[in-house]
From TrEMBL:
<keyword id="KW-0052">Apoplast</keyword>
<dbReference type="Pfam" id="PF03018">
    <property type="entry name" value="Dirigent"/>
</dbReference>
<comment type="subunit">
    <text>Homodimer.</text>
</comment>
<dbReference type="InterPro" id="IPR000477">
    <property type="entry name" value="RT_dom"/>
</dbReference>
<comment type="function">
    <text>Dirigent proteins impart stereoselectivity on the phenoxy radical-coupling reaction, yielding optically active lignans from two molecules of coniferyl alcohol in the biosynthesis of lignans, flavonolignans, and alkaloids and thus plays a central role in plant secondary metabolism.</text>
</comment>
<protein>
    <recommendedName>
        <fullName>Dirigent protein</fullName>
    </recommendedName>
</protein>
<dbReference type="InterPro" id="IPR044859">
    <property type="entry name" value="Allene_oxi_cyc_Dirigent"/>
</dbReference>
<feature type="domain" description="Reverse transcriptase">
    <location>
        <begin position="1"/>
        <end position="100"/>
    </location>
</feature>
<keyword id="KW-0964">Secreted</keyword>
<dbReference type="GO" id="GO:0048046">
    <property type="term" value="C:apoplast"/>
</dbReference>
<dbReference type="GO" id="GO:0009699">
    <property type="term" value="P:phenylpropanoid biosynthetic process"/>
</dbReference>
<dbReference type="InterPro" id="IPR004265">
    <property type="entry name" value="Dirigent"/>
</dbReference>
<comment type="similarity">
    <text>Belongs to the plant dirigent protein family.</text>
</comment>
C-alpha cells in the first residue's frame, strides 16, 4: 500500500539519489514514514492509515506514534502532529535500538550499542562453555568483542556499520550452537523403582490426604524412593527417584507425576533425568523425559513403567527409559 502510494505520488518521500526515493522503512511492527511535510502528503498519509484499518481490521496505534521534523520551521511540526493526531518527538531518538540524530552522531550516542554488545557477550561466553569450546576459540570471541567495542567507539559513520558488526557476532553464536557439541546418542536404561508406603523406613509422605467423596482425587504424595538394578530389595542401589504424585483424575485410575531420577552409582553417577507425565494404576505408564543434568544435559525421550510386585506396604515398578543425549 505504501509502495503504491509512493509510486503514484501520494507521498513524496525523501530523495536519496537520482534513482532512489525512500517513502518508508518497515521492520515487523516498527514503521517509519518519510514525507516532505507538505499538508497534502500528511492528509494522504492519514487516509492511508484509515484505509489500512478498514481493510485489515487492525488499528494503527497513534498514541505510540511521533512526528519528528528534520528541517523547517517549528510550526510545520506542530501542524503535522495535529493532522495525524499523534505526539511530537525530537532528536536524538532510537529506531530498532539504534541512535538517530538530525546530524552527525556524537561518540556518547554509541554507548547504548556498546552496553548491549557487552551484555550479550556474557551470554555468548556461557554458550561457548556449554559447547566445550577450546581455549583458542574462547580467545577468538574475546578478541572479536574487543574489536566490536573499538570500532563502535571510533565510528562516526552511518548506523549500517552496526548491522555488519552484529551479523559478524551472530556467526560466532551460530558456530557455538552447531559445532563441538558431539553426536547425539540413544541410551536405554533398565532398573527398578522400590517404594515403601508404611513403617519407619517409609519413602512416601501424603502431604494432602482429602478422602473426598470416597476417592483419592486431590491427594498429593511426596516420595524419595530407591532405584535398584533388580526387583529384589537387596539388589544394588543405583539412585533415587524423588518427586511428587498428584491424584488428578476423578476416576482414580491415573495421576500426574513429576520425578527426578538421580543416579548415585555406576556409569551415570551424579547425573539425573527429569520425567513428567501420567501414571496409570493398572497397565503400562508412558511418561516424557523433559530434561537432565550431568551426562544427560539436553536430554529428551520417554520412560515406560509397569508394576511388577506389590504388598500392603511396598511396591516395585520396572522402568525402561529411552533417552537421547550428547
Amino acid at each position: 500500500m505504501m509502495d503504491k502510494a509512493g509510486q503514484n505520488g501520494l507521498i513524496k518521500g525523501v530523495r536519496m539519489s537520482d534513482e532512489l526515493v525512500v517513502a518508508h522503512l518497515e521492520f515487523a511492527d516498527d514503521f517509519v514514514v518519510f514525507t516532505s511535510g507538505d499538508r497534502n502528503d500528511l492528509l494522504n498519509l492519514k487516509l492511508l492509515l484509515v484505509a489500512y484499518e478498514l481493510a485489515s481490521g487492525l488499528k494503527a496505534n497513534l498514541a505510540k506514534t511521533k512526528v519528528v521534523h528534520v528541517r523547517g520551521c517549528e510550526e510545520r511540526g506542530v501542524e503535522a502532529a495535529a493532522i495525524l493526531g499523534c505526539k511530537r518527538g525530537t532528536f536524538p531518538l532510537k529506531y530498532l535500538g539504534l541512535p538517530l540524530r538530525d546530524g552527525r552522531l556524537a561518540r556518547e550516542d554509541w554507548n547504548c550499542i556498546i552496553e548491549k554488545c557487552s551484555f550479550a557477550r556474557d551470554g555468548w561466553r556461557r554458550l561457548l562453555e556449554k559447547a566445550e569450546f577450546s581455549l583458542e576459540e574462547n580467545q577468538m570471541l574475546v578478541e572479536k568483542d574487543e574489536r566490536i567495542r573499538s570500532l563502535v567507539t571510533q565510528s562516526k559513520s552511518s548506523s549500517f556499520l552496526i548491522f555488519f558488526l552484529l551479523f559478524s557476532a551472530c556467526e560466532v553464536i551460530a558456530r557455538a550452537s552447531v559445532h563441538h557439541v558431539g553426536d547425539e546418542k540413544l541410551t536405554h536404561l533398565h532398573f527398578y523403582f522400590h517404594e515403601i508406603d508404611a513403617g519407619p523406613n517409609s519413602t512416601v509422605v501424603m502431604s494432602v490426604d482429602l478422602h473426598k467423596n470416597g476417592t483419592t482425587f486431590g491427594n498429593i504424595g511426596i516420595f524419595d524412593n530407591t532405584l535398584r538394578t533388580g526387583p529384589e530389595p537387596s539388589s544394588a542401589l543405583i539412585g533415587r527417584a524423588q518427586g511428587i504424585g498428584v491424584h488428578s483424575a476423578l476416576d482414580d485410575k491415573t495421576g500426574l507425576t513429576t520425578i527426578n531420577l538421580v543416579f548415585t552409582a555406576g556409569e551415570y553417577k551424579d547425573s539425573s533425568l527429569a520425567l513428567l507425565g501420567l501414571f496409570k494404576v493398572t497397565g503400562e505408564s508412558d511418561r516424557s523425559i523433559v530434561g537432565g543434568s550431568g551426562r544427560f544435559r539436553l536430554a529428551r525421550g520417554y520412560a515406560l513403567s509397569k508394576l511388577v510386585n506389590s504388598t500392603t506396604t511396598t511396591l516395585v515398578v520396572e522402568f525402561d527409559v529411552y533417552v537421547k543425549h550428547y
